[in-house]
Specification:
Elements: H1 2-29, H2 33-37, H3 47-66, H4 98-118, H5 130-153, E1 176-179, E2 182-186, E3 202-206, E4 209-212, H6 218-226, H7 238-246, E5 255-258, E6 261-266, E7 269-272, H8 284-293, H9 301-309, E8 310-311, E9 316-317, E10 364-371, E11 391-398, E12 414-417, E13 426-427, E14 431-433
Parallel strand pairs: 10-13
Antiparallel strand pairs: 1-4, 2-3, 4-14, 5-6, 6-7, 8-9, 10-11, 11-12
The chain binds N,N,N-trimethyl-histidine (AVJ) and fe (iii) ion (FE).
Fe (iii) ion binds at residues 53, 57, 82, 139, 143.
Keywords: Iron, Metal-binding, Monooxygenase, Oxidoreductase
Pfam families: DinB_2, FGE-sulfatase
Domain Sulfatase-modifying factor enzyme-like: 173-432
């Protein structure tokens, strides 16, 4: 029934947009003005750039494209075009001041609410325009994660707090799970808010492999460090070896040795590195070197998705490891509910049919794979979302982190970054091919 569909869609669009804006507001109001306009790292934009960029993308897609409205402030489009200005240059642009950026984003949002209310869409039915609303809610949440990374890089006292995840008994289950070989369905053609790079669904043959039951922990990673892993060229890709030598990298980002123990700075607070938590802030080269040291390798993207979505009982791919239900707090650590990953072995209710845990949430997981289009890929709605990033320069990350909102997280969701990047909330798990 069209009226019911339209009403359900309107509710979901409203809820996800409001949730995203609450988070944006938190991230841009917990520090004073100078911290909004400062550049905390050359890798990141000033927070106030993200804020106005969120509003500007919303204006371009929902007000101009979907509703057919005139531009409110066409003169600022180029300042907030991510392709015109690399992040390092953004502080020198004539950015809107925090007060102006806030009122611009709020003005856009008010008009979007009117559009949703009246369903005044430009030549499209409500449900057909739905994707644009989902895309914009995901876009805002992705920039919220980016802003949380900026907060982690910012020096100075704590500005954000959240309760820690519940403690769990040390995980004593099997260290790895066997995923039997055979085809499975990768990607999706039916998930309404899936982005272009997740489409279309297609069959993939995947040989038998074993995959870690949980992400690699700090304790396991420390064993690699203590064994001289960072000083042994055998474990490293040549480009990675050159990179860690050049930049004197000896441990994950934000770690510091203190006698026999490791400390790390986390959102303005220094703590002892918790042994049973998934390792965080490692680059692809570090993940790859650890895996080789451990006599293993990173899973391919197809292996990761098969472990996360294939239900061997029905030869069917589910939306999430636990089935088709939307993520709930008992399934996964998502949405910045906590400001850290949960201990390895958490969320038994979120495990896959074969018993793999924490595939969704906690830490983004590096895979062995380059970011490439699926067979039948079509860029939508713009080439700059995914297509311009395809190729060997970017590695795929899967599963989302504690900083990812459920609206931007699915078993099919693909993230990508350069193999040297580690300011992102990245960890990994390892795999090995099964003997044939
Ligand atoms: C998918 C996280 C790599 O942040 O560059 C934000 C998402 N695209 N605005 C990014 C995105 C446009 C993108 N990543
Ligand atoms: Fe963006």
């Amino acid at each position: 029934d069209d009226a019911v569909d339209a009403e359900a869609f309107r509710d979901r669009a409203l809820t996800t947009l409001v949730t995203a804006r609450e988070r944006t507001t938190l991230l841009t109001s917990c520090v004073e003005e100078p911290d909004l306009t400062a550049q905390h790292s050359p890798l990141m934009s000033p927070l106030v750039w993200d804020l106005a960029h969120i509003g500007n993308q919303e204006e371009q897609w929902l007000l101009r494209t979907v509703a057919g409205q005139e531009a409110i402030r066409p003169e600022i489009d180029s300042i907030y075009d991510a392709f015109e200005h690399p992040r390092s240059e953004r502080p020198s642009l004539p950015l809107l001041a925090p007060r102006e950026a806030r009122s611009y984003a709020a003005d856009v949002r008010g008009r979007v609410m009117d559009v949703l209310e009246r369903a005044a869409f430009h030549g499209t039915r409500l449900t057909e325009a739905g994707f644009a609303f989902g895309m914009i809610a995901q876009h805002e949440q992705q920039h919220d994660e980016t802003m949380l990374i900026t907060h982690q890089l910012r020096k100075g006292p704590q500005a954000l707090t959240a309760p820690d995840p519940d403690p769990v008994p040390l995980f004593t289950g099997p260290a790895e799970v066997l995923v039997p070989g055979g085809p499975f369905t990768m990607g999706t053609s039916t998930e309404p808010w899936a982005l272009d790079n997740e489409r279309p669904a297609h069959r993939r043959e995947v040989a038998s492999f074993h995959i870690d039951t949980t992400p690699v922990t700090n304790a396991a990673y420390q064993a690699f460090i203590e064994d001289g892993g960072y000083d042994d060229e055998r474990w490293w890709e040549p480009a990675g070896w050159a990179h860690i030598r050049q930049h004197a990298i000896h441990a994950p980002l934000f770690w510091r040795r203190d006698g026999k123990q490791w400390l790390r700075r986390r959102f303005g607070v220094t703590e002892v590195v918790p042994p049973d938590e998934p390792v965080l802030h490692v680059c692809w080269y570090e993940a790859d070197a650890y895996a080789r040291w451990a006599g293993r390798r990173l899973p391919t993207e197809a292996e990761w998705e098969k472990a996360a979505r294939h239900d061997p009982a029905g030869d069917r791919s589910t939306r999430y490891p636990w089935g088709d239900a939307d993520p709930a707090p008992e399934h996964a650590n998502l949405g910045q509910r906590h400001l850290r990953p949960a201990p390895a072995g958490s969320y038994p209710e979120g495990e896959s049919p074969l018993g793999v845990r924490q595939l969704i949430g906690d830490v983004w997981e590096w895979t062995a794979s380059d970011f490439l289009p699926y067979p039948g890929f079509k860029a939508f709605p713009y080439k700059e979302y995914s297509e311009v990033f395809f190729g060997p320069d970017h590695k795929v990350l899967r599963g989302g982190s504690f900083a990812v909102d459920a609206v931007a997280c699915r078993g099919t969701f693909r993230n990508w970054d350069y193999p040297i990047r580690r300011q992102i909330f990245s960890g990994f798990r390892t795999a090995r091919s099964a003997a044939v």
